[in-house]
């Protein structure tokens, strides 16, 4: 936003810009794309970590799997928004925005439903996190409705303001996971090798000793 204003690519006094408008022209478009790609990677990592965290809490339900899929789709949407700017490919850009905001909202609705499953060592932390997610959901829905309404009515500045607020609320919701992630003591990628076929295992065990004969002249 600061670069867009400084380079006079947006004029807030005339019309407050959408987030994507600020990242349309270079050099801010380069930074915009890089940040959203990094953000998509972070969202994907947080989503997978949250999924495994709930699994460790005993939730292996299909709802948790749908939540994982929704979070990863939302991350993909953020990447599409960053890589396909408005001036280059508007349709793909809008699809990415719907995935990032729309499916991202669905993700947090599911997380709100799954929140009672979380049982960290400090029950107050779990209750606080659940309360934060629950209270933040109505504003997200309201902001999406107002954003779309204002946009169709031609009130672009008002719609842009609500888009910025919506993005900040989603960031804040991801931050609430830190309370639960604080309970994680270790995390890593495990690799398991396939067992060799039975015949191969037998041949390895039963390999005969080989005598080496040296011929001298």
TrEMBL record:
One GO process term, biological-process aspect: autophagy
Acyltransferase found in the keyword field: no
Membrane-traversing stretches: 35-54, 66-84, 90-110, 131-153, 159-179
Keyword Cytoplasm in annotation: no
One Pfam entry name: Frag1
Annotated compartments: Cell membrane; Cytoplasmic vesicle, Autophagosome membrane; Endosome membrane
Xref: InterPro entries: CWH43_N (IPR019402), DRAM/TMEM150_Autophagy_Mod (IPR050911)
Name this polypeptide is given: Zgc:123244
Species assigned in the record: Petromyzon marinus
Record lineage: Eukaryota, Metazoa, Chordata, Craniata, Vertebrata
């Amino acid at each position: 936003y600061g670069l867009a204003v400084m380079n006079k690519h947006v004029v807030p006094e005339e019309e407050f810009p959408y987030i994507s408008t600020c990242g349309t022209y270079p050099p801010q478009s380069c930074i915009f794309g890089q940040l959203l790609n990094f953000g998509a990677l972070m969202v994907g990592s947080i989503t997978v970590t949250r999924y495994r965290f709930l699994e460790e809490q005993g939730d292996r339900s299909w709802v948790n799997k749908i939540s994982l899929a929704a979070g990863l789709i939302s991350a993909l949407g953020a990447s599409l928004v960053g890589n396909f700017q408005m001036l280059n490919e508007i349709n793909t850009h809008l699809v990415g925005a719907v995935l990032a905001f729309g499916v991202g909202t669905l993700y947090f609705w599911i997380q709100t439903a799954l929140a009672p499953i979380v049982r960290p060592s400090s029950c107050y932390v779990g209750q606080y996190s659940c309360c934060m997610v629950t209270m933040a959901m109505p504003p997200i829905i309201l902001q999406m409705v107002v954003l779309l309404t204002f946009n169709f009515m031609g009130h672009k500045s008002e719609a842009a303001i609500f888009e910025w607020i919506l993005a900040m609320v989603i960031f804040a919701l991801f931050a609430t996971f830190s309370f639960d992630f604080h309970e994680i003591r270790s995390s890593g990628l495990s690799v398991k090798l396939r067992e060799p076929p039975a015949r191969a295992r037998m041949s390895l065990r039963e390999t005969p000793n080989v005598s080496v004969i040296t011929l001298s002249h």
